[in-house]
Protein backbone atom coordinates (compact mmCIF):
# COMPACT_ATOMS: atom_id res chain seq x y z
CA UNK A 1 0.00 0.00 0.00
CA UNK A 2 1.34 3.46 -0.93
CA UNK A 3 2.34 6.00 1.72
CA UNK A 4 -0.58 8.26 0.80
CA UNK A 5 -3.07 5.40 1.14
CA UNK A 6 -1.67 4.62 4.59
CA UNK A 7 -2.16 8.31 5.42
CA UNK A 8 -5.94 7.85 5.30
CA UNK A 9 -5.89 4.67 7.37
CA UNK A 10 -4.94 6.81 10.38
CA UNK A 11 -8.06 8.98 10.21
CA UNK A 12 -10.51 8.62 13.12
CA UNK A 13 -14.25 9.16 12.75
CA UNK A 14 -16.91 10.71 14.98
CA UNK A 15 -20.56 10.54 13.92
CA UNK A 16 -23.27 12.98 15.00
CA UNK A 17 -26.98 12.32 14.79
CA UNK A 18 -28.46 15.39 13.17
CA UNK A 19 -31.92 15.24 14.71
CA UNK A 20 -34.86 16.29 12.49
CA UNK A 21 -37.50 18.74 13.68
CA UNK A 22 -39.92 16.91 16.03
CA UNK A 23 -43.07 15.84 14.24
CA UNK A 24 -41.61 16.42 10.77
CA UNK A 25 -40.51 12.82 10.12
CA UNK A 26 -37.15 11.80 8.66
CA UNK A 27 -34.87 14.28 6.98
CA UNK A 28 -31.56 14.30 5.07
CA UNK A 29 -28.56 16.62 4.90
CA UNK A 30 -28.43 18.49 1.59
CA UNK A 31 -25.58 20.99 2.04
CA UNK A 32 -22.38 21.37 4.08
CA UNK A 33 -20.12 24.41 4.39
CA UNK A 34 -17.32 25.56 6.73
CA UNK A 35 -16.22 29.14 7.38
CA UNK A 36 -12.77 30.38 6.37
CA UNK A 37 -11.37 30.10 9.90
CA UNK A 38 -12.64 26.54 10.35
CA UNK A 39 -14.55 27.44 13.53
CA UNK A 40 -18.14 27.02 12.32
CA UNK A 41 -19.82 24.37 10.19
CA UNK A 42 -23.31 24.60 8.74
CA UNK A 43 -25.48 21.84 7.42
CA UNK A 44 -28.92 22.27 5.88
CA UNK A 45 -31.63 19.65 5.63
CA UNK A 46 -34.63 18.63 3.59
CA UNK A 47 -36.94 19.62 6.49
CA UNK A 48 -35.92 23.30 5.84
CA UNK A 49 -33.60 23.43 8.85
CA UNK A 50 -30.21 25.17 9.11
CA UNK A 51 -27.90 23.85 11.82
CA UNK A 52 -24.76 25.74 12.89
CA UNK A 53 -22.05 23.73 14.70
CA UNK A 54 -19.05 24.97 16.65
CA UNK A 55 -15.89 23.23 15.41
CA UNK A 56 -13.47 22.33 18.17
CA UNK A 57 -10.14 20.56 17.62
CA UNK A 58 -11.57 17.06 17.81
CA UNK A 59 -15.35 17.40 17.70
CA UNK A 60 -18.47 19.34 16.73
CA UNK A 61 -20.58 20.84 19.51
CA UNK A 62 -23.18 23.42 20.62
CA UNK A 63 -25.39 23.24 17.55
CA UNK A 64 -27.70 26.20 16.90
CA UNK A 65 -30.85 25.57 14.85
CA UNK A 66 -32.67 27.92 12.48
CA UNK A 67 -36.06 26.41 11.69
CA UNK A 68 -37.65 27.03 8.28
CA UNK A 69 -35.62 30.09 7.25
CA UNK A 70 -36.92 29.98 3.66
CA UNK A 71 -40.07 28.78 1.91
CA UNK A 72 -38.26 25.61 0.84
CA UNK A 73 -35.17 23.70 1.92
CA UNK A 74 -31.93 25.70 1.92
CA UNK A 75 -29.75 24.24 -0.83
CA UNK A 76 -26.87 26.74 -0.68
CA UNK A 77 -25.05 28.63 2.06
CA UNK A 78 -22.13 31.02 1.54
CA UNK A 79 -19.82 32.25 4.32
CA UNK A 80 -18.40 35.77 4.06
CA UNK A 81 -14.61 35.17 4.17
CA UNK A 82 -14.02 38.57 5.81
CA UNK A 83 -15.86 37.56 8.97
CA UNK A 84 -16.08 34.47 11.14
CA UNK A 85 -19.83 34.60 11.62
CA UNK A 86 -21.66 36.12 8.61
CA UNK A 87 -23.29 33.87 6.02
CA UNK A 88 -25.90 34.09 3.26
CA UNK A 89 -28.61 31.57 2.40
CA UNK A 90 -30.96 30.87 -0.50
CA UNK A 91 -33.96 28.53 -0.43
CA UNK A 92 -35.81 28.62 -3.76
CA UNK A 93 -37.73 31.78 -2.98
CA UNK A 94 -37.05 35.37 -4.06
CA UNK A 95 -34.91 36.22 -1.02
CA UNK A 96 -31.26 36.06 -0.09
CA UNK A 97 -30.95 36.16 3.70
CA UNK A 98 -27.88 37.35 5.60
CA UNK A 99 -27.36 35.79 9.06
CA UNK A 100 -24.86 35.88 11.88
CA UNK A 101 -23.33 32.78 13.43
CA UNK A 102 -25.84 32.78 16.27
CA UNK A 103 -28.68 32.25 13.81
CA UNK A 104 -29.96 35.84 13.96
CA UNK A 105 -31.28 37.30 10.70
CA UNK A 106 -29.44 40.53 9.81
CA UNK A 107 -30.74 41.38 6.34
CA UNK A 108 -33.06 40.26 3.55
CA UNK A 109 -32.32 40.96 -0.11
CA UNK A 110 -35.21 40.60 -2.56
CA UNK A 111 -33.83 39.14 -5.79
CA UNK A 112 -35.28 41.10 -8.70
CA UNK A 113 -34.41 40.76 -12.38
CA UNK A 114 -34.05 44.24 -13.90
CA UNK A 115 -33.31 43.46 -17.55
CA UNK A 116 -36.53 43.74 -19.51
CA UNK A 117 -39.59 43.60 -17.28
CA UNK A 118 -38.67 44.01 -13.62
CA UNK A 119 -39.79 40.96 -11.63
CA UNK A 120 -38.92 38.94 -8.55
CA UNK A 121 -37.14 35.65 -9.28
CA UNK A 122 -36.25 32.48 -7.41
CA UNK A 123 -32.66 32.40 -6.14
CA UNK A 124 -30.74 29.10 -6.33
CA UNK A 125 -26.99 29.67 -5.84
CA UNK A 126 -25.12 32.18 -3.68
CA UNK A 127 -21.36 32.87 -3.32
CA UNK A 128 -19.19 35.55 -1.73
CA UNK A 129 -16.10 36.67 -3.64
CA UNK A 130 -12.76 35.62 -2.15
CA UNK A 131 -12.24 39.06 -0.63
CA UNK A 132 -15.82 39.30 0.67
CA UNK A 133 -16.47 42.51 -1.27
CA UNK A 134 -19.19 41.09 -3.53
CA UNK A 135 -22.02 38.57 -3.32
CA UNK A 136 -23.11 36.76 -6.49
CA UNK A 137 -26.56 35.19 -6.81
CA UNK A 138 -27.90 32.91 -9.55
CA UNK A 139 -31.66 32.75 -10.10
CA UNK A 140 -33.80 30.03 -11.65
CA UNK A 141 -33.57 31.68 -15.08
CA UNK A 142 -29.74 31.63 -14.92
CA UNK A 143 -29.38 35.36 -14.43
CA UNK A 144 -26.36 36.32 -12.32
CA UNK A 145 -26.75 39.31 -9.99
CA UNK A 146 -23.81 40.96 -8.21
CA UNK A 147 -24.25 42.85 -4.91
CA UNK A 148 -21.78 45.29 -3.36
CA UNK A 149 -21.36 44.05 0.22
CA UNK A 150 -19.61 47.20 1.46
CA UNK A 151 -22.45 49.35 0.08
CA UNK A 152 -25.21 47.62 2.04
CA UNK A 153 -25.61 44.88 -0.60
CA UNK A 154 -26.57 47.27 -3.38
CA UNK A 155 -27.06 45.51 -6.70
CA UNK A 156 -24.33 46.61 -9.12
CA UNK A 157 -24.43 44.14 -12.04
CA UNK A 158 -26.71 41.69 -13.82
CA UNK A 159 -25.73 39.20 -16.54
CA UNK A 160 -27.90 36.61 -18.30
CA UNK A 161 -26.17 33.27 -18.99
CA UNK A 162 -27.61 31.28 -21.88
CA UNK A 163 -27.72 27.86 -20.17
CA UNK A 164 -28.88 26.56 -16.81
CA UNK A 165 -26.20 27.10 -14.15
CA UNK A 166 -25.48 24.17 -11.82
CA UNK A 167 -22.60 25.72 -9.90
CA UNK A 168 -20.58 28.92 -9.58
CA UNK A 169 -17.22 29.86 -8.02
CA UNK A 170 -15.09 32.98 -7.63
CA UNK A 171 -11.37 32.39 -8.05
CA UNK A 172 -8.01 34.13 -7.84
CA UNK A 173 -7.27 37.82 -7.44
CA UNK A 174 -9.91 38.73 -4.84
CA UNK A 175 -12.99 39.22 -7.07
CA UNK A 176 -11.69 39.26 -10.63
CA UNK A 177 -13.05 36.00 -12.07
CA UNK A 178 -16.33 34.05 -11.86
CA UNK A 179 -16.64 30.54 -13.30
CA UNK A 180 -19.84 28.63 -14.07
CA UNK A 181 -20.79 24.98 -14.65
CA UNK A 182 -23.52 24.82 -17.29
CA UNK A 183 -26.15 22.38 -18.51
CA UNK A 184 -24.53 22.05 -21.94
CA UNK A 185 -21.22 20.95 -20.38
CA UNK A 186 -19.36 24.18 -21.07
CA UNK A 187 -17.46 26.13 -18.43
CA UNK A 188 -17.58 29.89 -19.11
CA UNK A 189 -15.34 32.26 -17.16
CA UNK A 190 -16.25 35.91 -16.71
CA UNK A 191 -13.94 38.72 -15.63
CA UNK A 192 -15.10 41.67 -13.55
CA UNK A 193 -13.59 44.88 -14.87
CA UNK A 194 -12.78 48.10 -13.01
CA UNK A 195 -16.35 49.34 -13.60
CA UNK A 196 -17.77 46.23 -11.85
CA UNK A 197 -19.06 44.81 -15.12
CA UNK A 198 -18.85 41.09 -15.91
CA UNK A 199 -17.37 40.34 -19.34
CA UNK A 200 -16.76 36.93 -20.98
CA UNK A 201 -13.10 35.93 -20.64
CA UNK A 202 -12.84 32.23 -21.56
CA UNK A 203 -15.18 29.45 -22.68
CA UNK A 204 -13.86 26.01 -21.72
CA UNK A 205 -15.19 22.85 -23.33
CA UNK A 206 -14.49 19.30 -22.26
CA UNK A 207 -17.68 17.50 -21.20
CA UNK A 208 -20.24 15.67 -23.32
CA UNK A 209 -23.00 16.12 -20.73
CA UNK A 210 -23.98 18.73 -18.19
CA UNK A 211 -21.32 20.10 -15.83
CA UNK A 212 -22.74 19.52 -12.35
CA UNK A 213 -20.24 21.01 -9.88
CA UNK A 214 -17.07 23.04 -9.40
CA UNK A 215 -14.28 23.21 -6.83
CA UNK A 216 -11.26 25.51 -6.60
CA UNK A 217 -7.84 24.56 -5.30
CA UNK A 218 -7.43 26.75 -2.16
CA UNK A 219 -3.93 27.62 -3.39
CA UNK A 220 -5.29 28.82 -6.72
CA UNK A 221 -3.37 26.46 -9.02
CA UNK A 222 -6.29 24.56 -10.54
CA UNK A 223 -10.01 23.91 -10.46
CA UNK A 224 -12.03 20.71 -10.93
CA UNK A 225 -15.32 20.25 -12.77
CA UNK A 226 -17.65 17.30 -12.22
CA UNK A 227 -20.06 16.08 -14.87
CA UNK A 228 -23.13 13.94 -15.36
CA UNK A 229 -21.20 11.30 -17.35
CA UNK A 230 -19.01 10.52 -14.33
CA UNK A 231 -15.89 12.42 -15.42
CA UNK A 232 -13.95 15.01 -13.41
CA UNK A 233 -11.86 17.40 -15.49
CA UNK A 234 -9.00 19.37 -13.90
CA UNK A 235 -7.94 22.72 -15.33
CA UNK A 236 -4.94 24.99 -14.76
CA UNK A 237 -5.86 28.51 -13.66
CA UNK A 238 -2.64 29.82 -15.24
CA UNK A 239 -3.21 28.43 -18.74
CA UNK A 240 -6.96 27.61 -18.67
CA UNK A 241 -5.98 24.23 -20.14
CA UNK A 242 -7.35 20.82 -19.19
CA UNK A 243 -4.40 19.08 -17.48
CA UNK A 244 -5.89 15.93 -15.91
CA UNK A 245 -8.99 13.69 -16.07
CA UNK A 246 -10.60 11.40 -13.49
CA UNK A 247 -12.74 8.97 -15.45
CA UNK A 248 -12.70 5.60 -13.72
CA UNK A 249 -16.17 5.88 -12.12
CA UNK A 250 -19.10 5.76 -14.51
CA UNK A 251 -21.58 7.60 -12.29
CA UNK A 252 -22.88 11.17 -12.19
CA UNK A 253 -20.74 13.47 -10.04
CA UNK A 254 -22.68 15.26 -7.29
CA UNK A 255 -19.93 17.23 -5.57
CA UNK A 256 -16.18 17.85 -5.49
CA UNK A 257 -14.16 19.42 -2.70
CA UNK A 258 -10.39 20.00 -2.65
CA UNK A 259 -8.21 19.72 0.46
CA UNK A 260 -6.59 22.82 1.95
CA UNK A 261 -3.21 22.24 0.27
CA UNK A 262 -4.69 21.04 -3.03
CA UNK A 263 -3.26 17.52 -2.61
CA UNK A 264 -6.56 15.59 -2.54
CA UNK A 265 -9.94 15.76 -4.26
CA UNK A 266 -12.98 14.31 -2.51
CA UNK A 267 -15.61 13.25 -5.07
CA UNK A 268 -19.22 12.49 -4.20
CA UNK A 269 -21.58 10.68 -6.54
CA UNK A 270 -25.24 11.02 -7.44
CA UNK A 271 -26.21 7.59 -6.10
CA UNK A 272 -24.87 4.13 -5.39
CA UNK A 273 -21.21 4.83 -4.59
CA UNK A 274 -19.35 6.02 -1.53
CA UNK A 275 -17.33 9.23 -1.65
CA UNK A 276 -13.85 8.61 -3.05
CA UNK A 277 -10.67 10.61 -2.43
CA UNK A 278 -8.14 11.00 -5.22
CA UNK A 279 -4.59 12.33 -5.19
CA UNK A 280 -4.15 15.37 -7.42
CA UNK A 281 -0.65 14.57 -8.71
CA UNK A 282 -1.29 10.97 -9.77
CA UNK A 283 -5.14 11.00 -10.03
CA UNK A 284 -4.96 7.68 -8.13
CA UNK A 285 -7.78 6.70 -5.77
CA UNK A 286 -6.49 6.94 -2.19
CA UNK A 287 -9.51 6.20 -0.01
CA UNK A 288 -13.17 5.22 -0.14
CA UNK A 289 -15.14 6.98 2.58
CA UNK A 290 -17.32 4.44 4.45
CA UNK A 291 -21.11 4.82 4.76
CA UNK A 292 -21.21 7.90 2.51
CA UNK A 293 -23.69 7.07 -0.25
CA UNK A 294 -26.48 9.47 -1.16
CA UNK A 295 -29.84 9.51 0.54
CA UNK A 296 -33.15 9.11 -1.24
CA UNK A 297 -33.89 12.85 -1.26
CA UNK A 298 -30.46 14.51 -1.11
CA UNK A 299 -27.09 14.02 -2.76
CA UNK A 300 -24.00 13.10 -0.76
CA UNK A 301 -22.01 15.99 0.75
CA UNK A 302 -18.34 16.30 1.73
CA UNK A 303 -16.23 19.27 2.89
CA UNK A 304 -12.56 19.60 3.85
CA UNK A 305 -11.59 21.86 6.75
CA UNK A 306 -9.52 24.88 5.68
CA UNK A 307 -7.40 24.89 8.85
CA UNK A 308 -6.75 21.27 9.85
CA UNK A 309 -6.30 17.76 8.48
CA UNK A 310 -9.95 16.75 8.61
CA UNK A 311 -13.11 16.56 6.54
CA UNK A 312 -16.81 16.12 7.24
CA UNK A 313 -19.46 14.33 5.20
CA UNK A 314 -23.11 13.24 5.22
CA UNK A 315 -23.36 9.61 6.32
CA UNK A 316 -26.00 6.90 6.80
CA UNK A 317 -27.81 7.98 3.60
CA UNK A 318 -27.77 11.62 4.65
CA UNK A 319 -29.22 11.10 8.12
CA UNK A 320 -26.02 11.68 10.12
CA UNK A 321 -22.91 13.84 10.00
CA UNK A 322 -19.43 12.28 10.27
CA UNK A 323 -16.18 14.07 11.11
CA UNK A 324 -12.95 12.37 10.01
CA UNK A 325 -9.65 13.72 11.33
CA UNK A 326 -6.03 12.83 11.94
CA UNK A 327 -5.59 13.15 15.74
CA UNK A 328 -1.81 13.28 15.32
CA UNK A 329 -1.88 16.21 12.87
CA UNK A 330 -3.12 19.80 13.05
UniProtKB/TrEMBL annotation:
GO terms for cellular component: THO complex part of transcription export complex. The keyword Repeat applies. InterPro entries: Tex1/THOC3, WD40/YVTN_repeat-like_dom_sf, WD40_repeat_dom_sf, WD40_rpt. One of its GO terms (biological process) is mRNA export from nucleus. PROSITE patterns: WD_REPEATS_2, WD_REPEATS_REGION. WD repeats lie at residues 67-100, 204-245. The keyword DNA damage does not apply. It comes from the Eukaryota. Keywords: Repeat, WD repeat. It holds the Pfam family WD40. Belongs to the THOC3 family. This is WD40 repeat-like protein. It comes from Cerrena zonata.
Amino acid sequence: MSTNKLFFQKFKSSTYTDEPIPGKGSSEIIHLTINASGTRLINTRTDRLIRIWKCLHDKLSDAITISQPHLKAVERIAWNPKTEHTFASVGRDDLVKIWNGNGILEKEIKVVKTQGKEEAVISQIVKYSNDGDFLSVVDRDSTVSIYDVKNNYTKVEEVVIGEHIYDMEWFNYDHEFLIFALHDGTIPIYRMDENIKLKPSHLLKGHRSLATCLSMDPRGRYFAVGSNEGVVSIWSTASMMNTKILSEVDEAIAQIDISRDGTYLAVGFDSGSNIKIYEYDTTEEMFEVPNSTSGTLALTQVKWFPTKTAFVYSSDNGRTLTLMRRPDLK
